[in-house]
Each structure stands twice: as structure tokens, then as C-alpha cells.
Design a protein that fits this description.
Layout lengths: L2 H12 L4 H8 L3 H9 L7 H10 L4 H12 L14 H13 L5 H12 L1
């Protein structure tokens, strides 16, 4: 699940809206919306993101936060290390190889370190 998918699901469930109902109201398939929530599809388009915010009555800071999550929620990331140091390439490859083995505490530590 992506950060965007988890947040969208949380907002939808807090409002008592079923996935099927939200999908129908947004004019997308329930399978697509489920895949978006579970991180099996890429980020939503800007237009769909706006429709989701309107549908869930999300405005201002909360809409900006959801947009930020969508931007950071592509489930298939690629990192271009061309022109960077060999250590940068090593880090990118090591992270790609081992990310599935990291528990939530380790992920939190890495995020905190990277965000300064």
C-alpha cells in the first residue's frame, strides 16, 4: 500500500463510504480504485486527485497534504544515479535490494535521517 492509498482509504472509511460507491460516484472502476488504494497502480492523475478531494470534501491544507502523498506514492520508483558518485549508486542499489527486509522502525529511522 502506498502512503496515498492508505490515506485515501482512511478518509473514505471515516466517512462510511464503500469502495464501490466511491468508484461509481467518481466514474472509475472499483478495481481501479482498489488498485490505487493498494499501491498496484501508479499515482492518480491531477484531475482524478482533484475529483477525489472534491468528493471527500477535502480543502486547503488537507488537500495539499493528499497531493503531496500522491506525488510521493509511485509504487515503482527508479533512481537515476548517472553522474553521481559510486557511493550514491551503491546506496540506491542496496536500498532497492533490501527495502523489503526493513521493519517499520528502520524505515522511520531512514526517513528521519533523509528528511534531516
Amino acid at each position: 500500500m502506498t502512503p496515498f492509498g492508505a490515506r485515501m482509504r482512511s478518509l473514505r472509511q471515516a466517512r462510511g463510504i464503500t469502495l464501490k460507491q466511491m468508484a461509481a460516484d467518481l466514474g472509475v472502476s472499483a478495481a481501479y480504485l482498489s488498485a490505487l488504494e493498494h499501491g498496484h497502480r501508479g499515482r492518480p492523475s491531477w484531475l482524478l486527485l482533484q475529483r477525489i478531494c472534491g468528493y471527500l470534501n477535502i480543502i486547503w491544507d488537507e488537500a495539499d497534504a493528499l497531493a503531496d502523498l500522491a506525488r510521493l506514492s509511485h509504487p515503482k520508483v527508479s533512481i537515476d544515479t548517472a553522474g553521481l558518485s559510486p557511493r550514491a549508486t551503491l546506496l540506491a542499489n542496496e536500498l532497492a535490494r533490501r527495502i523489503g527486509d526493513l521493519d517499520e522502525a528502520k524505515l522511520d529511522q531512514l526517513l528521519k535521517l533523509l528528511r534531516g
